[in-house]
Structure formats: C-alpha cells, structure tokens
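User: Run a structure prediction on this.
Assistant: Running it now.
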Amino acid sequence: TNLVHKVFKGIDSPFGYGEVLHSGFVDTAILINKYHGYLEQKSFLVKERFDYSQLQQSDNHIQYKDFKASHIVFAEGFGMHSNPFFKYLPLDGTKGELFIIKAPDLDLDVIVNTSVFILPLGNDLFKVGATYNWKDKTVFPTEEGKKELVERIKEILSCEFQIIQHFAGVRPTVNDRRPLLGSHPKHKNLYILNGLGTRGVMLAPAMAIDLYNYIENKIPLDKTIDINRYAHFL
C-alpha cells in the first residue's frame, strides 16, 4: 500500500489513507444485466422458479421438464436451504444491510473502506455498507441495521447525507469459511457451487474453473472446498 494524504471534502481523516494497489471494481449489476441479455439472445436463459419435483435422474443424465443434460449445477446462494438435495450442508448465512445515500458536499472519487465502505456512484450518490447479522436470515431492511449504519457513517463523514435507499441481503457463509463445491454423495450428476461468503465476486471465477475441471476433466477438488468434508451430515 501507499500512504495518501489527500484531503477529501466531507470526510474526517486526520491520519490520511493507505492506498491499495493493483485493485479494481466490478459493477456487478451491469455485469449481470449484460450477461443475462447475452444469454437471452442465445436462448440459453430461462427465468422461472426451479421445481425440484420435476428433476428426474438416471445413471448418466438428468431430465428437467424439456431439458436433458449430463450434469446440473446448483448455484443458489442462501436459497440452497430450499434445495432437497443439498440442504444438509451447513450454510449459515450472514445478513448485511446497505444504503444508497446522497451527499452533495462529499467530494470523493475513490472507494473508501474503513468501518464501512463508501463507493461513489456519481450524481452525488454513494453506496455505503455493510452490517453483519448472524441471527436474522431475512432479506428485509431493519431499523436496527439502519441505526448501526447511520452511526458508522457519522463517525466518518463530516457532511450531511440523505438516505435514498436501504436494502439488505444474506451472504452465503459457511462456518469453516470455505466454499461448498462438488458432487452430491448419492447423486453424482448433481453438483453445487455455493458458500462463497463475503468474497463471492473474487472467489466465483476461480471456484467455477475448479468445479468445471472437476466435472469435465476429473481433476479432484481441494479437500478444503470439497463438500465431501460434510458427507457425515447427510
């Protein structure tokens, strides 16, 4: 890291900043929307709730409604708890709440990360988060989360701000802090890609490659990410 002593109007930072080098930012909303559009153009995407009762299995393929395939990969995040095949896995889940705020007097063109992160969105809008709640597993914003975020923001910002949006989600976390990859112990053509926790954007590409190589090239998964470590839970 490099030490930066630049003054950003609206932020109280008497000791400067540590600049993280060789980093970047992925706008996941744009990425997902564009990729969905690409898949829809190729007729590769079906938007509907998955009906597990419609899944039929044989020794060498699976059938789901009109679709026939050699393998199926479930990448459902915290929704895995509704999956009858993989719900035995210890996916705990950690709720997080975030804001979109409007702060015209905040002059910031970089991402700041301290007790909260502050991400410039343009037009005086900033994304700010996030909280950690290990008990509440709902996706609804709470007054408790709002109060916590407001208090943290006020510790950092020396300017006024307005809450434009308040939203929440559940991170797919695992107690041993390792991803959940691999094939079902009893149904070998059913696979899972989950448990990426709070670093999903960074972990997902590498984990997807590992799972692909496991399925197509028979390259074993690292035992720390293989769901075989939880086979005794089934």
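The chain has three helices and 13 strands.
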